[in-house]
Each structure stands twice: as structure tokens, then as C-alpha cells.
Amino acid sequence: MIPLYHDFSEETVLVFGGGSVGARKARRFAREATVVVVSPTFDDRFEEFDESEQAAVDRIRAAPEPEAVGEWLDRFEPAMVVAATDHTELNRAVGEAADERGLLINRTDRSGSRDVGSVVVPATVRDGPVSVAVSTGGKSPALSRYLRQQIETEIQDAGAMAELTGELRSEIKESDYSAADRRAAVRSVVRSSSVWKALHTGTPNAEKEAERVMAAEHDDKGASR
Ligand SMILES: C[C@@]1(CC(=O)O)c2cc3[nH]c(cc4nc(cc5[nH]c(cc(n2)[C@H]1CCC(=O)O)[C@@](C)(CC(=O)O)[C@@H]5CCC(=O)O)C(CC(=O)O)=C4CCC(=O)O)c(CCC(=O)O)c3CC(=O)O
Ligand SMILES: NC(=O)C1=CN([C@@H]2O[C@H](COP(=O)(O)OP(=O)(O)OC[C@H]3O[C@@H](n4cnc5c(N)ncnc54)[C@H](O)[C@@H]3O)[C@@H](O)[C@H]2O)C=CC1
């Protein structure tokens, strides 16, 4: 399996099953998508959603039979469907109906090899625009979760570093740096312990420090030519 990132803004994600797993997936996709959850019962976790999550998640109380699943997909035209019920036949019908319509499908009750369009939801860590996704190929979701917790501390302030180097990249694109010098300059900043330190301590001079590191790298290169 090969990880890709998918933009769900302006899209609908349709979840079948309002148990603990349905709640977790609904919350995950509510970050970007409009989420519709169809289920006869809803777990208490739905009550713990914050305001923006509540606003993005519609709950519909219904218990469709497997033959009726296609109608729900046609009604909401989702980009992705999540099968998260405890009803295997229904989850299978959701998978088939999504496949017939060429929609992405997440079978939460399955691991192992998958058909085209059948996707796995990884454990995800975020810091601003930076995200790290972990999957064990379905072998051990608990390990994905554990590794996600470890990575959380590793990527502290990576979001601020992404913003900072994003700006510097645009600036030096306008300058007379060669492509090779540009790469070396940005690399020197993301590897710089002094820039990371400035970001960790929240001092306002991270940008100045980054510019200093870049200029030193540029001078070094100039000197060696
Ligand atoms: C294939 C996959 C399909 C998918 O859902 O996309 C899948 C399938 C299954 N999970 C099961 C169980 C558990 N899942 C979790 C947790 C998570 N599961 C997630 C993803 C995935 N789970 C996909 C593969 C990811 C990968 O490749 O690693 C995470 C990462 C993302 C998320 O769901 O948001 C989220 C952690 C999020 C976080 O914390 O960051 C825990 C841990 C816990 O709850 O503490 C347990 C109990 C412990 C255990 O079993 O390991 C079962 C058995 C059910 C049963 O026994 O009935 C199946 C079905 C089967 O294996 O057949
Ligand atoms: N991918 C993952 O991370 C995990 C997946 N699982 C799998 O996910 C399934 C669900 O797990 P939980 O949420 O813990 O179970 P749960 O029992 O808490 O929730 C199941 C939900 O499905 C609903 N449901 C039943 N029939 C339905 C129908 N016809 N249409 C719509 N909704 C219906 C129930 O009302 C309930 O809200 C399990 O069967 C298991 O195979 C379990 C744990 C983790």
C-alpha cells in the first residue's frame, strides 16, 4: 500500500454505523468534509465533539438493509464511504455499492489486501500544515496508535518550520540564487539546530536566524567555487 494525501474540503463522507469506530472516523473527516452518519444508535462519543465537529457532522437515525445502501450513496453522492457497522453483511453491501459507483471505500472491519479504491485510515499526527501518517498495513492498528503518540513529540514546531521555510522559498525564488543554491539554502535551515531552538522557545527571531543560516550557507558555497 502506498500513502497519498487527499483533499476532502467541499466533499461529503458518508459513514454507516454510529458506534465508537463510526464516531472516530466521523471526527477525523469532519476536519475537512461534511460528514453524514447513518445509524440506528449513536455512541456517547458523538456528544463529546467540539462545536465545529458538531457543525460538520449530520446524524441520520436509520438502519438500512443491505439492498438499500445504494440509494443512500446516490442521495448523498459522497467522495468516500465508511463501513463501520457491526453488521458484516451491511458492511459488505456498502463496499460493493461504493465499488460499483467508483467511490473510495474504507472497510473498518477488514485488514489485509484490498481492492482498488479500498482505503485504510492511518494514525495521523499534525502540526500546522505538517502531517505524518502511520499504517502497519492493517497488521497492528494498536502499534499505529503507539507510534503516532511517539511521533507527536518528534514533530513539535514542524508546522512553524514549514511556514517559515515556505516563505523563505518564495523569497529566494525571486532572488538570483541558482536552483542548486536554493536547495542547499532551504536544506540548511530545516537542519539548523539554532532555528529549531528559536521555534521551540517561541522567540521572535527565528526568521532572522534562518536568514543568517541561509546567508552563511550561500557565502560558504560562494567561497568554495
Ligand atoms: C485496516 C484498518 C481499517 C481502517 O479502519 O481504516 C483497521 C482495522 C481494524 N482495526 C481494529 C482494531 C483496532 N483499531 C484501533 C485503532 C485504530 N485503527 C486505525 C486504523 C485501521 N484499523 C486500519 C489499519 C491501520 C494500520 O494499517 O495500522 C487507526 C490507526 C486510525 C483510525 O481508525 O482513526 C486507529 C488508531 C488511531 C490513533 O489512535 O491515532 C485499535 C486501538 C485502540 O482502539 O486503542 C484497535 C484495537 C487493538 C487492535 O486490534 O490492534 C480491528 C479489529 C476489530 C475487532 O477485533 O473486531 C480491525 C479490523 C481487522 O483487523 O480485521
Ligand atoms: N477500524 C478500526 O479501527 C476498528 C474496527 N472495528 C470494526 O468496526 C466495527 C464497529 O465497531 P464499533 O464501532 O466498536 O461497534 P459498535 O457496536 O459500537 O457500533 C456499531 C454501530 O453500527 C450500527 N448499525 C448496526 N446496524 C446498522 C445498519 N443497518 N445501518 C447503519 N448502522 C448500523 C449500530 O447501531 C452501532 O451504532 C466492528 O464490527 C469491528 O469489526 C473495531 C474496532 C476498531
TrEMBL record:
Catalytic reaction equation(s): precorrin-2 + NAD(+) = sirohydrochlorin + NADH + 2 H(+)
SUPFAM superfamilies on file: NAD(P)-binding Rossmann-fold domains (SSF51735), Siroheme synthase middle domains-like (SSF75615)
Enzyme Commission number(s) from the entry: 1.3.1.76
The Siroheme synthase central domain, residue ranges: 127-152
Single GO term (MF): precorrin-2 dehydrogenase activity
GO annotation, biological process: porphyrin-containing compound biosynthetic process
Signal sequence bounds: none
Region annotation Disordered: where it falls in the sequence: 200-225
Pathway: Porphyrin-containing compound metabolism; siroheme biosynthesis; sirohydrochlorin from precorrin-2: step 1/1
Ranges of compositional bias, category Basic and acidic residues: 206-225
Keywords of the record: NAD, Oxidoreductase, Porphyrin biosynthesis
Protein name: precorrin-2 dehydrogenase
